[in-house]
Amino acid sequence: MELALSLGHTNNASMGFSVALPHHTRASSDPPLQLHHLLPSTPVLPSPRLPIPCLSHALGMEDTPVRALDDTEDGAALSSPNSSAVSSFQMELYRNSRKFFEGDSEEDENGSTRKKLRLSKTQSAFLEDSFKEHTTLNPKQKLVLAKELNLRPRQVEVWFQNRRARTKLKQTEVDCEYLKRCCESLSEENKRLQKELQELRAFKTCEPFFMQLPATTLTMCPSCERVATTTSAAASATNNDSVYLNKPRILSGPHDPLECFF
DNA sequence: TATGTCAAAGCCATTACGTCA
DNA sequence: TCTGACGTAATGGCTTTGACA
């Protein structure tokens, strides 16, 4: 029985029940990366690329190369922010990024402390969309994403690592649920078959009694058309007279009840 | 051609931290 | 204010793989 479990999102549907991600998805053969490869076809953000350049501008970080990719293709998308007032959305980004930068600097100062930096919703959404496109990143993709989100490449790498782990965990839960249902179903089937077997056995053991009804009602074997005869002992006891025996009696040889009946 | 070494990348288990009820 | 549960970022160790001598 093949358990073709392609429930939910799996990295490799052909792997059947296994939920393991391909161990090595090294992208050495990947085509040259373009930014649009990293982005969802339907961005969840008004303009996924907009906030970061905005942010860089607000922070006076124009020297930070945000446009890490081929300018010819995505230049428009990465163009400077529009002239409208900075939205609260962008301000939130600004504040979040301030926190990140402060966190980074703090970590640099006392490297022993492990500061956990919470990603903003925007960053998470961006990463999530990228994950839908590629569950693994090649170094270039990682760098591009890191620059886009103002994160360290290591952070992007870790996020994808943890995201793959979460996916696998969820898939495992789904698989467990499915197997649980399979198990329950098989148990029911097993019970049903056991019951059926018991009934058949009971029927088989009852049959001789069926065959041992009073002689008047069971005088002839349907297969051989022989009537019940007396045993030799009975014959001698009755002076060789043929008698009908009312006592239970199993015929031997061809008169085996099972042989005759079936 | 076979083999050992090394670096890179991924997975896994675990820790540590932030948030929330 | 405290606390425990939970989600998740981060870490360290191990394995696998490909390149290279």
From TrEMBL:
Pfam families: HALZ, Homeodomain. Residues 176-203 form a coiled coil. Its main location: nucleus. This is Homeobox-leucine zipper protein HAT14. GO terms for molecular function: DNA-binding transcription factor activity, RNA polymerase II-specific; sequence-specific DNA binding. The gene is LOC106757426. Residues 112-171 bind DNA. It is found in: Nucleus. GO terms for cellular component: nucleus.
